């Protein structure tokens, strides 16, 4: 799975491309741990180029949603392909995760929430792209 990062204000968008399976979940976990250590608290996962997700990928999303919430931030998703949206619906993850239709709506929602939060911001100001 490939992951590219882009920061817009307080929100770090991570664009995912490929398969969010065991290997992809490990890549995502590693990147999310690094970005939260670097100060990111408002993270949007753009899933528009995600081909598939399995139970390990779902677990990684849920665990990081809970972890960011505990840190005073939030993890949201956007651009879920129809097949992945159906998996989220059937598994009940639609109720457990914040989901927006597209990146701009996701960034807007997270930015508004970050502004209301006592802990906000991303302490990095660069964009990068990495693949694994």
From TrEMBL:
Q: GO MF terms on file?
A: anti-sigma factor antagonist activity
Where does the record place the STAS domain? 1-100
Stretches of Polar residues bias are at 117-132
Q: Which residues does the annotated region (Disordered) include?
A: 110-132
The record's annotation in SUPFAM superfamilies points to: SpoIIaa-like
Query: What protein name applies here?
Result: STAS domain-containing protein
Annotated source species: marine metagenome
